Amino acid sequence: MHRYKDLKFWQLSRVFCKDIYLITKSFPSDEKFGLTSQLRRASVSIPSNIAEGASRVSNKDFARFLRISLGSCYEIETQLLISCDLDFIQKEELEKLQHTLYQIIKMMSRFISTLKI
């Protein structure tokens, strides 16, 4: 088992999740069950899957959950791009969120490569 709370990418993913919640507050109310919901669920999925994977006995299982988290990262990136296309967020906000997202992806990818699977 791994101490997920000590993992920098887990810590950063919690901050990122909060940022997603804050930014989606300004989305149109008719998006409540659309992009707002999708972005929020996917952002919660990142730290949640890291934590769940850390509880697994094998590194192979942990890596599987980390890959699910990575999938959520790319899902969010796509949804953020669409949100920008629809003028729900500004280009500057998109770039800030993408920067944080890329940091999470890089750290998690590097960590996965260190696991002895």
From TrEMBL:
Tell me the CDD domains matching this sequence. 23S_rRNA_IVP_like
User: Which SUPFAM superfamilies does the entry mention?
Assistant: IVS-encoded protein-like (SSF158446)
**Superkingdom of this protein's organism:** Bacteria
Q: What is the name listed in the Swiss-Prot or TrEMBL entry for this protein?
A: Four helix bundle protein
